[in-house]
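Worked example

This section walks through a single chain of length 189. The input is the sequence exactly as stored; nothing has been trimmed or padded.
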Amino acid sequence: MPTTDPGTPDAVKVTTWHLELTDLADLSDGRTPDVEATFVVTERPTAAFSKWLYHYIGEPWQWTDKHRWPDERWQARVTDPGYAAATCVIGGTPAGYVELFNRAGDVEIENFGLAPDVHGLGLGGWFLTRSVEFGFGLEGARRVWLHTCSLDGPHALANYEARGFRLFDTEVEWKVVDPPTQPGATPPR
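Given that input, the structure is written out below as tokens.
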């Protein structure tokens, strides 16, 4: 999303909140989901699967910053030594995913989300709790942090705060947002 000024046509005001957890003991578990779900760690990540999940999960929320990435950049991402990922699986089908980067114990949840068709089933808090536990289980983890913005789902910020994340920074920018494409569709290159 390119940053712009408020006078640019189609510009929207976007607030980004940066949140962190510095102690696993501060993590509050989410409620039990209404469906049976499994947290599956991605042991052999592939660029194609990561790219597909990013588009499938992120399209409704204007995740567009990686749309034009070449395949080589996706490959470099998933082979980065600090990269870790997991999926939320329901009935054998991926219904959500999380991507984390561990930088010397500073673990960022870079992408986290659920497929639109499973919203409202109580998965958000459960999946976030498992994701944070996974993050703190990475080598040397001292902090798990993330950011969310006003373009995300209406319950995203509340979910992070309910799990124990604390706000440490806020940014406000004007951005031009690419229009969403059909969920799961391959974006233009």
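What to look for: The longest helix spans residues 123-136.
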